[in-house]
Design goal:
alpha/beta; single chain; two-stranded parallel sheet; five-stranded mixed beta sheet; globular; 13 strands
Length: about 300
């Protein structure tokens, strides 16, 4: 589920890059792109990056919530299968809303990916892409971009992202979060009202960024940890750390990890964390500049037909 709001200089470019480099038919994913409107003005979808016809869909929503409130709107309006929600709360009008009558049964999915348009990725080094191509040809078994994250989820780990911040407490940073059905069920329990609606807790709609950060971004990891599960990320220095233990709450890096030179004097490497912040903030220039360079290199390689990736 990808929330797009054209509030950053690079938001459209981030969306376009993701669709062109990650979204494919027959890759075992249903992609939901939620376009945030301004003043209820419909967005011309013909001017948005084209999507595969069978497994990727644009939906539109007024930008009166931050990302996870908007995701809560979608889960409430267009899904069934919430273990804390009676199916009767999905009305017939919901079944035929907007341009589609599609309803998604979340019980059909093993994993759930939540992301927004403030990041660019995925980035993989060329040798890894060549390895994947050779692997798929030799073993006739696909390897998808999201496996980097979903393969880290197991009976203990239920929330994964590119980065974890320990300010003020350990939490997977909200621009990219991946969980499974068990993890989502835990979050939905917090977000589902007694009447069966999903518009409170971590998926609630809050008017301030500070409330959203505290309740949704930090709250998601807190709920997962308090439910007896673990969180994980791709930052090498954070590997094997059990963030459920209070003694690890300060992290080995007590700084915003996507800020320049925040990890032992170094900045995030796109080829390591796969997705990097790519917006207008001046504190994230090094990963952004490196990502831009890698993108240009790969575009040049593809233009010269030097690869079949």
């Amino acid at each position: 589920m990808y929330v797009y709001a054209n509030v950053y200089q690079h938001a459209y470019g981030n969306l376009k890059y993701f669709i062109e480099n990650a979204v494919r038919e027959h890759d075992g994913v249903d992609y939901i792109f939620i376009l945030q409107q301004t003043e209820n003005k419909p967005i011309d979808e013909s001017k948005m990056p084209p999507l595969p016809k069978t497994n990727a869909f644009y939906f539109q929503h007024e930008n009166n919530c931050f990302d996870y409130g908007t995701m809560g709107w979608f889960l409430d309006k267009y899904t069934i299968g919430n273990p804390w929600q009676k199916q009767s709360s999905i009305t017939n009008s919901n079944m035929n809303n907007n341009k589609t009558d599609r309803i998604f049964d979340i019980r059909r999915y093993k994993y759930f990916i939540f992301m927004n348009a403030s990041i660019r990725g995925p980035f993989f080094p060329p040798y890894f892409l060549q390895f994947l191509s050779d692997y798929e040809n030799e073993f006739n078994a696909p390897y998808y971009w999201y496996y980097i994250f979903t393969k880290r989820i197991n009976d203990k780990v239920k929330l994964v992202g590119s980065t974890i911040s320990c300010i003020p407490v350990p939490h997977v940073q909200s621009y990219l979060m991946i969980t499974d059905f068990t993890g989502l069920s835990v979050l939905l329990k917090d977000s589902t009202t007694s009447g069966g609606r999903i518009h409170t807790g971590v998926f609630g709609c809050y008017s301030s960024k500070s409330d959203t950060t505290q309740v949704s971004e930090i709250g998601i990891s807190t709920i997962i940890l308090n439910s007896g599960y673990l969180i994980d990320c791709l930052i090498p220095k954070f590997q094997t750390i059990d963030f459920s233990k209070k003694g690890n709450y300060k992290c080995p890096v007590y700084a915003n990890p996507y800020a320049d030179k925040s990890i032992d004097g170094t900045s995030l490497e796109p080829y390591v964390v796969i997705f990097v912040k790519y917006n207008d903030k001046g504190s994230t220039t090094e990963p952004q500049d490196r990502a831009m360079l890698y993108q240009h290199w790969m575009e040049a390689v593809k233009t010269k037909n030097r690869t079949s990736w």
